[in-house]
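quick one before i forget lol
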Amino acid sequence: MRGPESGHETRSSEDSLQILGRKRNWLPFLRKMRNRDGGALSGGNRLEVYFLGDSAFDAMRQEIEGAKRSIHMEIYIFMADAVGQSFAEALGRKAEEGLDVRVVYDSFGSHRAGRRQFDEMRKRGVAVAEYRPYAPWRLFGRNHRKLLVVDGRVAFTGGMNLADTYSARESGKEAWRDTHMRVEGPAARDCDVLFGETWRIVTDEELAEPPAFSWAEGESGCCSCLVVGSRGLKRRRVMRRLFSVHIGRARRVIQLTVPYFSPPRRLRRALEKAREREVKVELLIPEFTDVPIADWIRERLMPEFLEMGLTIREYHESVLHAKTMVVDGDLAVVGSANYDYLSIALNLELSIVVYDRDFASRLVEQYEKDLERATPVDLERAKQRRWWQKMVARLAAFLVRRL
């Protein structure tokens, strides 16, 4: 979703604060997020959203091919399959042209890719860094972001890793359903700042601050965005605050699409308070994921959510991996963060809050399409688990309720 075209006023960050603050009384939260807690608010952005992996990957590769100065990538899973190799090749070509190309991949998430692909990228001039080399005592606290920034002007983020799993061309009907977004404007620069922080953590190298964003003459953007990056325990409250504050401001309806749903106590309380205000809370989850224990825990917690009054449906066409939230049809959140303790408190995550009704309507439209492939949750299935699965789920759910 690009636009509007020339002639539309581009709002400053301070203008956006004042407008949004008057609209929803979010001003204190937005100021705190911007100034202290890992968030950056900006106006004047252009946005697009992708619900198919191939569409997102094509757009990302196109931006990489057109890069003039820098390409920065922060990725949880970077596979050595057809999709992964196509990006490795594209990044390598740009590095050979002399561009500043840097990649941070998560050691645990990308362990199946092997090292050969990354070694080949290094030989071609790509600066590649491994986030927290995997060891049994480093299982948690991973870099779960999916971020690509080109020239500090365009950024992509959402739920899609670089893998055939997300591509219908490579995986056919088994391709996962996910959501990714493209942002062009000051918010892309804010994403680049977050990448620079991660690069410094991993390599001890301080990158130059990205230049201030400015539109070319005759161009503009109109959307206000809040870029929020968590950093494990150091910024452990930022994602929880992002969700709980916006849930707390809801007046009519909250539509959540989440693959791994086992919210810690304060987020469960935020949802409960929303229901007490008679806000409709709709939850779309996958029938199954790639993490069976997460499915068991979710099913164990399901009676509690239903008693709370949540409307819950299971998507059954393929694995649903999207991580989005729409509040009252005019605010949207897209990013890498799941609604669980790992994302809220331990992982590096990145989400973008979009204060734009047109963008939110695109997510609502897709949400309604997804509902055509979903059914109301069936609690009987949880009772059919084997005894040891029930025991593991009961123990894990006991811990989650106290987090």
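fyi Residues 186-203 form the longest helix (18 residues).
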